[in-house]
Design a protein that fits this description.
The chain has 145 residues and is an all-alpha fold. The chain has 5 helices and no strands. Helix 1 packs antiparallel against helix 4, helix 2 runs antiparallel to helix 3 and helix 4 runs antiparallel to helix 5. The radius of gyration is 20 Å and the shape is elongated.
Length: 145
């Protein structure tokens, strides 16, 4: 087509909204992990109760699932903690990227579509964390008794 020129994107239109979801989706995926991490810190700081310790640990490993791969809480050291948090942040950015791509397959994608896709992906990660904690408890926990 000679002389064909792409029309500009309508501000606030479907293409602009899809582009915004794709651009901001990975950053939005960091928000639930950050909320869980802050909750974990609040629960574990100056903690003397078992229930707060369990809830804080659960929030920590759900917010930063790569921590367990680096040996936290069995291994100590701030470098392992920071590396686990960094890898977890990259994981959540990738989850957000995939969720944004999947949500914007529809021409009229919304943030609700993004969060639906995100929760499916995050739910799989969180289920994996729970299963790995159960396996660790059944294998390592018995040896420590």
């Amino acid at each position: 087509m000679a002389g064909y020129r792409a029309l500009p994107v309508v501000p606030g239109g479907p293409r602009a909204f899809r582009y915004r979801i794709r651009r901001l989706g990975p950053l939005a995926a960091l928000v639930p992990a950050a909320v869980l991490s802050v909750a974990s810190y609040g629960l574990l700081h100056d903690n003397a109760a078992t229930s707060r310790g369990i809830a804080g640990f659960a929030a920590a490993v759900l917010g930063a699932p790569a921590l367990m791969a680096f040996g936290v809480p069995l291994a100590s050291g701030s470098s392992k903690l920071m590396l686990g948090a960094l890898v977890s942040a990259v994981l959540w950015l990738l989850v957000g990227l995939v969720a944004a791509r999947r949500a914007t397959r529809s021409p009229v994608a919304t943030w609700r579509d993004f969060w639906r896709e995100y929760l499916w992906l995050a739910g799989g990660i969180w289920a994996g964390v729970v299963v790995s904690l159960v396996v660790v408890e059944l294998t390592v926990g018995r040896a420590l008794l």
